[in-house]
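Whether sequence alone determines local backbone shape is best considered at the level of individual chains. The sequence in question and its structure tokens are set out directly beneath this paragraph.

===
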Amino acid sequence: MNNELITHTKAILNKEATARSFSHNTLTMSPAANVSHTYAINVNFPPKDAAYFFTALGEVLWTPDWSPSLIKGNGFQRNDVFLNTASGNTLFVVTNFDTERGHISYVRLDPNLTVATIDLSIKPSGKGSQVDVTYRLTALNTHSENTINALTAEAYQSEMKTWEGNIAMMEKSLQEWLHYAQQE
């Protein structure tokens, strides 16, 4: 972040604050640990079908410790909101769900710990799809920096290989489930 911009913002705030309703506004800069990883997994479904597996409802079928509580919508629309109650109420907001273009994205907030964006790009690959999964994770404080530091490239790759294996193991059930998911 531009330190000069922060300095000037503070100076203007200090100068103008005395006569304004924003006299109690403050500004701090807290550089936090962050990490970004991308990994491509392959699934034996076309992109329009594969997209549904990476939703609150879809992941129930292949992700251990996944207990979504739908707050708004079914998770298949932009601005739908859900919690994963199995992970201490991690909040997810769907920011894009476009099966036509093969793009899904979320904002993920683990209160007082981390915030993340999750981007999935799904494209045809052979008889199935390649899903590029990108996590960008930022610590919200110094106490959660260990979480960031633990997400090494190797740890992320291992997690993504687990996703790929779990989806492959559940193909028959996922195929059956798709019929209902796509009716929504």
Notes: The mean pLDDT is 90. The two ends are 43 Å apart (CA to CA). Helices lie at 3-16, 47-50, 56-59, 145-150, 153-169, 171-181. The longest helix spans residues 153-169.
